[in-house]
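Quick start: read one record
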Amino acid sequence: MAIRGRVRVDRRTKNLIQRLQPNEIAIISHNGIDKLAAQGLIEARCKFVLNAETSLSTDYPNEGPLMLVEAGIPIIDNIGPEIMKIPEGTEIVIKDDTVYLNGLALRGEYLDSEKIRAAMETAKNRLGEVLRSFVDNTLSYARDEIELVAQKIEMPPLKTKFQGKHVLIVVRGYNYKEDLRAISSYIHEMHPVLVGVDGGADALMEFGYHPDVVIGDMDSVSDTALKEAKEIVVHAYADGKAPGLERVRKMSLSASVLPMAGTSEDVAMLLAYEKGANLIVAVGTHSNVLDFLEKGRRGMGSTFLVRLKVGSILVDAKGVSRLYRSRVKVRYLAQVIAAALLPFAAVAVISPPIRQLMKLVIIQFRMLLGL
């Protein structure tokens, strides 16, 4: 059966998703479709995905293609660069594994769940080899970036006060919406400093929050979010080059520049830490090997070092929504934790330091339960 539809075309899937309308066909050039990209395409309700490159990674079992197919969105894979030349808005015809346009026929591989699962299993079998290489690279990068933890880093002066406060750092990572929803009561009660890392600023605005600080290289944050932010910090390369600064200046906005190695989310955590934050809560950040394989990074040296430095005050809220949706009844979980906390409560009455610890425990407990 032939399928007809209008296409949207972009080499960057995250940009295409912003323009994609329901029942349109997405034409992308995405090697190894990750979960975040798949989630965006599903939420945009596209009809079909045509990929110029290979949707399945050979390095790790990426879940994006399976998510798409299970959501009823077919994929024709590895069509080649010619597919990217189709003008956006054109109506095309798809039949079996071939795309037709004005007498032109472009053929790829039609992916079904059986093919995807087999490829994921193959990738899983060689994951050990990939992980060994990844760890070697991580340690190599860590040696080069050791100054991130070995010395105090000078931060730009900001009007936003971090000293003694809770700081919520939001990255637009996989399941960020569910996690933000799960900790909404924490945000309303504690009023943390709100830091959006690039598109994380838009994530905050989706939930009605106004970012205090936007930090990043400015490649995926909207103009609206930049205008709404109280302050902007452009993450520059270690040599001082800051490509994102030009965009901010064109909008007649002021910004501070922070040159540093590592990812923008690493820099956001260091900024909060060096400015004296009492607690850092992170949503949507990339914190494990599979996250970094999805991003195509060869190592996570800076992230390893930064989390080593800020770990004593860091609460990672990534995935908290999945715990909240678990089958364990909240009432039973609360009873178990309450019983375990009774001895601590007795000591806390006479010990000020433990009272502070108890406050942090209670906050984390409420975040986990979405209370």
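The chain has a mean pLDDT of 84.
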